[in-house]
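COURSE: Structural Biology Practicum
ASSIGNMENT: Worksheet 4, Part C
STUDENT ID: 0417
INSTRUCTIONS: Below are two proteins. For each, the amino acid sequence is given first, followed by its structure token string. Answer the questions at the end about the second protein only.

PROTEIN I
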Amino acid sequence: MYDIQNGGRAYKMALMGTHFTGKTRLAVAVESELRKRGIETKSIKEVSTDAKERGLPINEGTTKEAQLWILHTQIAEELRYARRRPNGPNYQALVCDRGVDNYCYLEHNVGRDEDALQMILNHARNFPYDRLYLLPITESGIRGGAGTRSVNPGFQKDMDNKIRSFLAEQSFDYIELPITQDKNPRDEWVRLVVNQTIQDLRLPNHLLM
């Protein structure tokens, strides 16, 4: 295992974007590849799946209460693993399935909420993401979904536009993952994210994919 010194906290990345862009599969693949390279990594799953299992409405029919529960739970899970401690869990890197973009579902469905907005912005300011990645819509998107999110292509596109506008409005720096000639670009996405992480952590080049 590599001893990564990062101010006592785990390196944290967020995979952002509208639903059915492959964030969950990418998070699992990145976690696996980083672990193979001796980097203790934790993938933090998207909270909307838990919300649905608890009977909270998501997608087009969501409520303010449901979205606030998602935001609070997401933040709590990130904080749970953010700090490296002598006694575990003691992860060196976190891969978050969603980030600041989770707020966009609240604003899109129930309107702007200043308290929720400031909560997510303050979290990003006080416990920053080392990297934000934006996943684009691909041809295989909705057809490959896991069944939690809406299969309405219009809603998917609306959220893509909303997230992009939000990131620009709040001046978040992010890396947009490319759509390649391959209909399934996720292998290239894994390589890009893993290599960027290794470079950010200043690890040896032989660990690059």
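PROTEIN II
(use this one for the questions)
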Amino acid sequence: METCPFCRVIIDKQAAATAAELQERANQSCSDASYVRIAAIAMFVFLGLSFIPLPFIDVTSWGFAATFVIVIVLIIRWQVRFGRLKTKDPDYLTARRQKNLALVLWLIAIPVGFLIQPLITTIGYDFLLQ
């Protein structure tokens, strides 16, 4: 046992190490959730661009498909690594909400990206060609 040089309180090294590890995992969960949120937003940017009849429509469609897969992989990874983390850190709760928002966006992207978007672009291209 050591004492704090400032307040002279006894410090349990094991408890301090456990608390530091918990805080590190909470911080990492925030960082990873931020990546998930950014990927979900990028997915919708590609999806939105794929509705516009542009010469690079294939690039936006492939970009949407790639980010669609990346988002679900990141969500599953976040859940496996941090889903059972027990902390009252408000940043962790924000990270959990960001991950859940990305999941909702991913679920919305299924019908929009794979049913509605192909239908609208097919109808739109037929209209433009006439």
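ANSWER KEY EXCERPT:
Q1: The chain has a mean pLDDT of 89.
Q2: The beta strands are 2-3, 10-11.
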